[in-house]
Amino acid sequence: MALVEGCKHELEISVPAADVEKETGKVSEDIRGKAHIKGFRPGKAPLSLIRRNYESDIRQKVLENLVPRFLDARVKQEDLHVVGQPDITDVHFHDAEPLRFKAQFEVFPAFELTDYRGVETPYAEPNIAPEDIDRRIEELRENKATYANEDPRPLANGDFAVVSLESLSGTDEPVKSDEVQVEIGGKETMPGFNENLIGASPGEEKEIEVSYPEDYGRASLAGRTVKFHVVIKGIRRKEKPELNDEFAQDLGDFRTVDELKDAVKKSIFAQRQNEAQRKAKDKLIEKLIDANDFPVPNVFVERQLDNRLEQRVSSLAQQGIDARTLNLDWRKLRENMRNDAVREVRASLILGRVAEKEAIAATNQEVDQEVDRIARQEREPLAATRKKLLANGSLDRIASHIATEKTLTFLFDHATKTEPEPEPETAPEAEATSE
Under CATH, to which class is 2-107 assigned? Predict the structure, then answer.
């Protein structure tokens, strides 16, 4: 065995001439039993005639049979864990001689982990302030708000204008809506609407221009200045429900506002705890990657790059952008991602080794629970969901994901938590400006 580079290995294999001749005879007999040669019934043609007429087919079939058989035997003999498809070269195949060839392939890396218990990672349990609860309660009130019609008058900040609008220019895809509700002065309202609608009254018609930022969520409007014909049809006032026990009961299994606030506090804590733990786990695995520098199979890296590019294309598609229209240099983009892909593969291998050492795996019950969740989400029978996931290989991916998450949790539970550095405070003015 020869180590070529990284995880690449090369074997030179020789198949004894006797084995080659035996396999050649077997293949020739198989072909003779099926061959249709004029003047002979199937299976009765002379073997010499079969070998002469089907020489190329026989050679190909002998190679197909012997190469993987002897390669597999050698791989098992040397206890190699091959990944990907071996590359067969330098094939020497002549009558009455041994069959010789070279096989180059990658192997699963052998490495010894550094101590993975007690790794330092920044983490602190989140604190929930009263204003955090008040803010979330206010969001709930906003979600339950209703809108009441107002008598006609000039629009002012805080009003909700009911308008119809139609694009006149500036966009390739026409925009038309008979009824849109616009919050005058609202943070999500484009300045062009605020500036042109304030002071207008129901019944008025206007032509206004609205400039959209480059990162606007709707691709057909992003970076464009669009002229609209707008008709003000009415004014509405937002009415939020009072914060009382009746409101709490309307939201769910709560009897009082205090019970609602307690549930909100627990929900915020769980959300922030999950986010904080995820950051801590990310830092932890980064440290393990830095501490365990070993070569990774290129076939794994290429697969990870494929996944990354597919995610990039999918993300663009969700924004309404066809990646084919962007004239991207995919080769350069792929190379720019390579270092991160290598680290991601190394992280996966490290987590796999920790799981192996600690006997961490997904249980049947855990997989069943996830399948049940997917079935309920997709609103289809459990048996149908399981059959689909089994057919497309997703069951194995589900089990792998569960095992990975359990391994990360194990590492986090056994980590040494340090005080996180305080995050820089953002001034309220800056926050308002950014919105």
Answer: alpha beta
